[in-house]
Design goal:
The chain is α/β, with parallel strands linked by helices. The radius of gyration is 18 Å and the shape is globular. Helix 2 packs across helix 5, helix 3 packs antiparallel against helix 5 and helix 4 crosses helix 5. Helices cover about 50% and strands about 10% of the residues. The chain has a single domain, classed as Rossmann fold (3-Layer(aba) Sandwich), CATH 3.40.50.300.
């Protein structure tokens, strides 16, 4: 995916996919192989912890009722609002996404591993913001599978699950970014050899990239 010389030494691979596509299972398998993983969702949660500037900006933008009685972000209320209101979702993204990108890049720059995995669910929605990464791995499942998993996992109604799917980029848009794609419609055990092969491929790619670096 990189369009110019990377701004980092660690070979950076994005793991992305739609909601309920099974990204966490693949992320876990990579971690079990010793891969360094930086998760955009984890970073985002850290950035909205009480006392953080992003949380104060969210409260100023959306109202104090987006906070719990303990001063924490009311994630369920926030999620419901952004899934039903495109303008609200964009406002939240304007607050969080630049901060998340800056923190991820800082962590990649400090990473001493041969390669790292960046778990970024909304890569397709981010435009060229992550053009500096070296490779993109897309976890792919049919929309019908996403819908069924989302309803089972979260107890969501069909209506709310469809809203969540519609709030994200299309399957076609995600696959257009892929250097590698994993079909995750099967049992998790079927993913083990696939992830092992990808891990070896990425180690070899990282070695080649290091040799090219002046």
């Amino acid at each position: 995916m990189t369009t110019s010389q990377p701004q980092h030494n660690c070979f950076a691979i994005v793991l992305t996919g739609g909601i309920a596509s099974g990204k966490s299972a693949i992320q876990r398998l990579f971690a079990e192989l010793g891969t360094t993983v930086f998760d955009a969702d984890v970073v985002s949660r850290e950035l909205v912890a009480p006392g953080q500037p992003a949380l104060a900006e969210i409260a100023d933008t959306f109202g104090i009722d987006m906070l719990t009685s303990h001063g924490e972000l009311d994630r369920a209320r926030m999620r419901e609002q952004v899934f039903s209101d495109t303008a609200a979702r964009r406002k939240l993204e304007e607050i969080l996404h630049p901060r998340v990108r800056a923190e991820l890049l800082a962590r990649v720059r400090a990473c001493a591993s041969p390669y790292c995995l960046l778990a970024i669910p909304l890569l397709a929605e981010s435009g060229s913001a992550y053009a500096w990464v070296d490779r993109v791995l897309v976890v792919d499942v049919p929309r019908e599978t996403q819908l069924a998993r989302l309803m089972q996992r979260d107890g969501a109604t069909a209506e709310s699950a469809l809203r969540a799917l519609d709030a994200q980029a299309s399957r076609t848009a995600r696959l257009a970014l892929a250097d590698d794609a994993v079909d995750n419609t099967y049992d998790v055990q079927a993913l083990v050899p696939i992830v092992r092969r990808l891990h070896q491929r990425y180690l070899e790619a990282a070695t080649r990239a290091t040799r090219r670096t002046p």
